[in-house]
Specification:
This protein is mainly beta. The protein has a single domain, classed as Jelly Rolls, CATH 2.60.120.10. It is 6% helix and 42% strand. A seven-stranded mixed β-sheet has the order 1-3-4-11-6-9-12, with no helix packed on it. It is globular and about 55 Å long. The model has no long low-confidence stretch (mean pLDDT 94).
Amino acid sequence: METRYANHPEDIKRYNTDELRDNFLVEKLFDAGKVHLTYTHVDRMIFGGITPAEEELTIKLDKQLGVTYFLERRELGIINIGAEGFVVLDGKEYEMKRHDGLYVGRGTQEVLFRSKDASNPAKFYINSAPAHHTYPTVKIDIKDIKPLELGEKGTLNERKIHQYIHPNVCESCQLQMGLTILLPGSVWNTMPAHTHDRRSEVYLYFDMEEDTRVFHFMGEPSETRHLILKNEQAVISPSWSIHTGTATSNYTFIWGMCGENITYDDMDHVKMNELK
């Protein structure tokens, strides 16, 4: 597991491209037979990719977190972006098709990840946040979610927002997680931009062609910066940063949030004339 530390907004005004990427961008998450995780000190989120192949995989972070097992004091969200697989929680197996999700409550001791076909593995993307209470584990099927349909063709941001770990779907301590699909011809995921100083966020961009690139914008509204991402890369978005991005074609992204509250629309919108 890699560790990323928190950054003051004044500091990043002096960062060059490599420094921005080293601090906020995670370039490799999915690698057959391996677990790639990142621990960010921003709200102590753990995120990453688990790609089981011939053998099942698990997360072993007891010593790193000062606990006896990974979810002793944490909750976990999982969305599969690969082929069919399985998650086994304390002996109970959950089938995980593409875009299926799972909320796992605090106190679950054994979490195993399997692929149905090692040659075409599942790709389990996870977000985990500290938890103070145990809520029930919930399997989430994208077919059962009625998406929020936002945006317009004229502003190039028609999108469907699927809320997975959200008060409308299941209870959680502080973790929220969802999947947004941009329609063909749309490239902006949020514009005008917004901030939410009470919550940080992590984005995973995927379902992109080899040459498609996302331009993820960050920084304070008056001091914007950008990162360029390719398929299946993730970016840490601190609470003080704007949350917005565009790309050379449509794409899908998973957003995961944790912090002071779990109100999805608790945003501070930024006027266009405030962006610099």
